[in-house]
Amino acid sequence: MAGEPLVPLVSAAEAKRLAALCTDLAEEGSFAREGYRLAMRGLLALIAIEVVRLAVSRARSGAVTLSRADAHVEQLRVLVDEHFRKERLISFYAEKLAMTPDRLNDHVKRATGVTAGHMIRQRVLTEAKRQLVFTGQPIHEIAYDLAFSDPSHFTRFFRKQTGMTPQAFREGRGG
């Protein structure tokens, strides 16, 4: 199976992220701690999602070269990871990147096929899902942890993004 990879990794950040997920997966399997099977399923899902996102990004762009927009996207991802709990407005991230919100959206849309707002919402949703599956935290505490002003706003957000309530998601995933 040697040869060209199906989804080439063009940045150190992509390789580092996948390597970290694979390392975590290997550790879970070798230590076999309480809940390791659930953790391994979650990590496998994250690896699969990451590979699919890379493949979709490559397919949309039709190229595997880094452009200036890709650097901005990577910077945005780092900022979103740091601030997603409190900051949801594109203008906050655009200001940090010394861009207008429209220009940031344009860069992100060309590089990934989705808007900056979508990236922010997906990061919030990913964290919500992680907490629902891997913690026993009450849903209202997860809502407040993710800076929703009210648990009902969190439930509406979650249902709009996934088509199900946080409780139904938790029950369906065995969390």
Please describe what this structure looks like.
With about 180 residues, this protein is mainly α. It has 2 domains: about 10-65; about 70-175, Orthogonal Bundle (Arc Repressor Mutant, subunit A). It has 9 helices and no strands. Helix 6 crosses helix 9 (about 165-170). The longest helix is centred in the first third of the chain and has 26 residues, at about 35-60.
List the main descriptive attributes of the protein structure presented here.
Arc Repressor Mutant, subunit A; 2 domains; 9 helices; 72% helix; 0% strand
Broad shape: globular
Q: Let me know the average pLDDT.
A: 85
Task: Quickly count the domains.
Answer: 2
Rg for CA atoms:
18 Å
Q: Give the CATH architecture of the largest domain.
A: Orthogonal Bundle
- CATH homologous superfamily assignment of the largest domain: Homeodomain-like
User: How far is it from the N-terminal to the C-terminal residue, by CA?
Assistant: 37 Å
State the CATH class of the largest domain: Mainly Alpha
Largest sheet, in brief, is: none
Tally of individual helices: 9
E-strand count: 0
CATH topology of the largest domain: Arc Repressor Mutant, subunit A
Q: pLDDT under 50 segments (min length 5)?
A: 63-68
Q: What class do helices, strands and sheet pairing give? A: mainly alpha
Element string (H = helix, E = strand): HHHHHHHHH
Strand content: under 5%
Helix content: over 70%
